[in-house]
Amino acid sequence: MSVWIISLLADGVIVQFLPPAATPMAHLVDQLFFWMVGISGVVAMALTAAIGIVMVRYRRGAKRNRKFHINKKRELWVEFTWSLIVFVAFMAFFYAGANLYVKAFSRPAQALRIDVTGKQWMWKFEHPNGAREIDTLHVPVNRVIELEMSSVDVIHDFDVPAFRVKHDVVPGTHMHLWFEPTRVGSYDLYCNQFCGLGHSKMRGQIVVMKQDEYANWLQHQQVPGSPSEQGAELFRAHGCSGCHIGNATVHAPHLAGIYGKTVHLSDGTTKIVDDAYIRDSILFPKRDVVAGYPPIMPSFRGQLSEGEIQLIISYIKAMPHRYKR
């Protein structure tokens, strides 16, 4: 069944108990949900009927002292069969839920990546070409959208009920979430984690557009520059280029082409240079010092916002196209 929306027809108006399913994942989530509710309802009615039969058959009265024979072997097989059925049903639901969970949080290939920043009390979005939005995100229909999310203050939660997707956005980490909208329209976006006094106001919209309309909309947005270009300006403005690029006189690691590589640290361990590693190196430079280099880099805590750090990371990712070691 492709559509799983319970509705009540009253006075000619359809009242929906669930938001419309606007992604393929939403249909899968609804299908699993209603199977679980349906089977649980059947089991509950069966148990209620069994309890009712026992209450009537062995009710208090003249028959209460009646002796009856218990076949222990049969009772044992009944209990074993019942337990086996419950176990198999539980494992089937567990497998279906785990399989759906893995699919929901497996990062897709060739997705349109959009950066999301949660902040009290708004959602900030940035498209690949640098176009920015606040509390409203425009996306094309029938296209896989990947969100890379971060928070600048407290824990938020990105929740779009119509897409059946939600994920906590934790400060100091990068969370990934994806969806593929299949219906043009506007869908509610909420923060589903209490994040302060203005939590109830942290709402937004996901506007799904036809692909040609989205391309036209994106073309007419004012773009301050690509994320890597903005990151380059920040990189130079804060003096990073004097140590980490070209023929710098300061003995510091060269960053061109380093993203995705494995670096050896002074404590003998190794780490892969990813977004989290670069962010920690900017905020906590003494934590993971590269072997062979002195721990002389200052911390930029309080000097760079989370959004600015993301721009610098974008620039470092683009360095192989700009510099050679």
The total of helices stands at: 7
**Number of E-type strands:** 14
Shape: elongated
Give the distance, in angstroms, between the N- and C-terminal Cα atoms: 57 Å
Report the sheet with the most strands, covering strand number, pairing sense and barrel closure: 5 strands, mixed
Q: Biggest sheet: strands side by side, in what order?
A: 5-4-3-7-10
Helix content: 25-40%
Task: Quote the average pLDDT.
Answer: 81
Query: What string, H for helix and E for strand, traces the elements in order?
Result: EEHHEEEEEEEEEEHHHEEHH
C-alpha-based Rg, rounded? 28 Å
Contiguous low-pLDDT stretches (5 residues minimum) are 1-15, 321-325
Strand content: 15-25%
Structural class: alpha+beta
Task: Give a written overview of the molecule.
This protein is an alpha+beta fold and about 325 residues long. It contains 7 helices and 14 strands. The strands form 4 sheets. Strands 5-4-3-7-10 form a 5-stranded mixed beta sheet, with no helix packed on it. The chain has a 5-stranded mixed beta sheet with strand order 6-12-11-8-9, covered by helices on one side. Strand 13 and strand 14 form a beta hairpin. Helix 1 packs antiparallel against helix 2 and helix 4 (about 225-235) crosses helix 7 (about 305-320). The longest helix has about 35 residues, at about 25-55. The N and C termini lie far apart (about 55 Å). About 20% of the residues are buried. The model is unreliable at about 1-15 and about 320-325 (pLDDT under 50).
